[in-house]
Amino acid sequence: MAIYPLALEGFENQMVEVQDDIVFGRQKLLVNGEPVPKGAEKGEMLLTRDDGKQVTARWQKSGLRRHTLEVDGKTVEVKRSALWWELLLVAIPIGLWRADVLGLVFVLVAFGLGRFALQTRRPALQRIVLWGGAMAVAVALNMAVGSLLPKVLR
């Protein structure tokens, strides 16, 4: 899980964060480590500012994922959306799948690691190097387990 701190106007004395479940794509808004209560309408959340005033917040769709939050009518970007080349890099492990269950497990591991590496807030070159390292780890694990598993099962 990744946690993204947010700097919201009127919440200077509170810690507002977004907890992002990278595997399942669920996001939670937290204030001082606690989940925010739901509002009156569907998808609405209630936040209490430092001055005691309650404001509403709701997730906004941004492509495939919810990356922006609307708080009291103002849009706050939680994290940037993936660029086309990042989506292409993340999809590469799927093309390497050899149609066996063990391979699928490592494709999913590589997919998750690659997605995590490319979503960091680092320069593009560092993200690509992180992605390459994640792919190398996934391939090494696949090769090691794939060669040891038949020997163990004998």
- What is the level 1 CATH name of the largest domain? Mainly Beta
Domain count: 2
The residue fraction in helices comes out at 25-40%
Helix run count: 3
Number of strands: 8
The largest β sheet comes out as: 4 strands, antiparallel
Calculate Rg over CA atoms. Answer: 20 Å
String of helices and strands: EEEEEEEEHHH
Q: Looking at the structure, what is the overall shape?
A: elongated
Estimate what percentage of residues fall within beta strands.
25-35%
Short account of what is shown:
With 154 residues, the chain is an alpha+beta fold.
Structure description:
The chain has 154 residues and is α+β, with helices and mostly antiparallel strands. It folds into two domains: 76 residues, Lipocalin, CATH 2.40.128; 70 residues. It is built from three helices and eight strands. The strands form two sheets. The chain has a four-stranded antiparallel sheet with strand order 1-2-3-4, with no helix packed on it. Strands 5-6-7-8 form a four-stranded antiparallel sheet, with no helix packed on it. A hairpin with a 2-residue loop joins strand 3 and strand 4. The longest helix is centred in the C-terminal third of the chain and has 30 residues. The chain is elongated and about 65 Å long. The two termini are 38 Å apart.
